[in-house]
Amino acid sequence: MKKILFLLCFCIFSFLPHKVFALNEVNIYFFHSDNCDICKQEKVYLEALKERYPNMRVYAYEISDPTNYQYMLDAKEMFQQTGVGVPFTVIGDSAYYGFSEARKGTFQKQIYEYSNQKYKNELGQKLGITYRTDLEGTVQDYKENDSYQVEESSGISRKPAKNQNIYDKYKVSFYLVIAGIILSIIAFVLYQVDKRRMKQQ
Question: What does the pLDDT read at residue 147?
Answer without folding.
Answer: 53
